[in-house]
Amino acid sequence: MKRFSSLSALSIALSIALASPSALAGSLTATQTYTLNDAAAQDAAWFRDGKRVAIAVENTVVIADPTGKALTTLRGPTEPVTRLSVSPDGTLVAGRSDGVLYVWRVSGGPVIRRWPPVNDTESFPVVRGAFRADNSLLILQNDQDAPLLALNVATGATSQLAEYGPEDLITSSDGKTALVIDYGNAYMIDTATFTKKGPTATYNKVGNAALSPDGAVGGIAGDSGKVQLLSTSAPARTLSTSLKVPGLAFLNSATLLLMEGGNLEQWAVGTGQKVGSVLKSPQLEDTLAVSVSGVAIGLSDDYPPSLFGSSKPSGSNFLRFPASKAQGVGLDGMQAVGVQFDEAFMLGSGTPITSNRSLNSGASTVPVLTSAAGVTAALLDSEAGFKVALVQGGKLVPGPALTAFDDDLQYFQISANGKYLLTHDGYTLAVTDLARNTTTTRNIDDLDLGEDLFDLAAVSADGSEIALVTADGTALRIDSQTDEIMTTAQLPDGAEAGLLDIAPDSTIALSVRRDDQAEVWLFKKNATTPFKQLQFTGWVDDLAFSPDGKALALSVSGLYSGVTVLDPSSGAEVARSVPLSLYGGGLTWNAGGTQVLVGRGTNGKVGSATLLNFKR
Q: Tell me, what's the pLDDT at 3?
């Protein structure tokens, strides 16, 4: 029977201080930016006259014309922007990002207001801001007991309109009427007086909601294909559609559009009848925003926005805006590699269309890229199944054979020195020596793990030691020659492991999520409790030791969003990048440990990946 140490008796937590980068011992300087197209979009809102549209593209808002041409880009947040609202006079745009409401002036693009203000520690995170006719904003907060507020954009002053805010609300393009979603009841209100207009409808679940441009008619889609129509003057009615939870948009007060999975239905509001047959878009949009002239922006989770005429969605085309992050990044020696929507590119420093060269061949896609020490491995997916390829000399070349797992592949990770590839399906772990093209395997039965499954894995520089974390939170160090378990420990209740790496001196870095807090734990060789436990305000999305193990790079988000480099022997921060946009996108070192490539753009600028020079 194994004896388990406990990780519950942890060392004193050390929060990473937000020191000035100039006060740090080292430096991390952005030296090159790479750009990929096809950024994902989260929301869209047309200007009242239909001549411009605001599109929430990752952490920016693109103002485009009806052809999809970008006119200007509004910047500021590091996290994705959602729930857009355009002021009735077309001068302001508001959007929510990471619980904060941003308000931009369209002319020039500056952020002129954010709420809550930076130093406000009392207010709740924002759910939505919606413009009224006078350009003030209705503010919903993320707490059922929080009041509904009105924000004066010019002064920043707020006033309370109701003791308790509803679940959600949206306002008409003229700002005079709001559709209120109020914990089981839906109704219309006059935004100036906050008095009810028309009858109330009841609901069990709301998936999407929309309001006609003039505020005369509203709609809510629940589940099971039911859409309720509300009016300021008539009882609520229910439409039965073939779409399960469609997106809604009113072309006008007489015509409702429903969309899901690329299927578009048109309904006559007056009769409650579907008009014509179901139209289809090739882009599989799940919701849409439509202008008064019938031009639609289509949206689908994690995909670029599309543009089409509401009467002919078959002509839908993606809008290709620059992305603020990559799906994944790697280094082929000193050359940058990026993946976007499962297509791999050699990255250049010019415009995306002219400088990035596709690496995909045939019908294969690249869903995963893993990279360390200038070595990059790609997972190729085709009808024939998965294969491993290496990026060498600017090409995808055949890599080692992928182990024939009994279950679906769950893990694909390269070691910090670029020598080993680790793969597993939960039951069997394979470690492949890339230079020798040899693979060793071990399964959960070999390690007497019972019904547990592999989760995270890392291998030391010489291949002699494997670090593992299982799905049930068991942490192990294994002698790879004998499969002897050298140490075991159990993660404390509530701690969820996220990322794992091991340095040449056997120092282990493990990221965990506990009590909604991001932490990185550092362990000395053979230790079962961390000697440092570092806390971060947001998320730790990537971590990687340098090839020599003397530096640990983290891609983080929160009060500070960017790349920070730690001294793993002490946990001290030694360098920090400029603020970077979004998070994720991968993180890798070059072979010399002097550069870090991260799949994030520099915040406030166009870019999807950033190359950073590191000096100790």
A: 26
